[in-house]
Amino acid sequence: MINITVCVGSSCHLKGAGDVVAALQSEIAERGLGDEISLNGSFCMGECIHDGVSVRVDGEIVFVQPAETRKFFEENIMPKVKR
Fold first, then answer.
1. Positive or negative, the Cα torsion across 61, 50, 45, 42?
2. Backbone dihedral region of 57: left (phi > 0), alpha (psi from -120 to 50 degrees) or beta?
3. What whole-number distance in Å separates Cα of residue 83 and Cα of residue 80?
């Protein structure tokens, strides 16, 4: 199971966390990966100084711009999918 946690704290909310969550939900649904990926939200991850929304993937934090979510998914999530 791939665990993705998106920060939905106030700073990330203002940076577009809702759009990132919606895009990730769409990618997961379109690819039929609901059984392989767990998508959750979290309040502040303490990384507010960075550009982009804080996203933790299996313990590693990356920063995602809403417009780059699809690219992030392709490059960071799909290689972890066991298919």
1. negative
2. beta
3. 9
Which residue type does 57 have? V
Tens digits of residue pLDDT in 12-58: 999 999 999 999 999 999 999 999 999 999 999 999 898 899 999 99
Q: DSSP states of 14-76 as a string?
A: HHTHHHHHHHHHHHHHHTT-TTTEEEEEES--S-TTSSSEEEEETTEEEEE-GGGHHHHIIII
How far apart CA 12 and CA 34 sit, in angstroms, is: 24
Please enumerate in sequence order all residues whose Cβ is within 8 A of that of 77, keeping only pairs 6 or more positions apart, or say none.
2, 4, 27, 37, 57
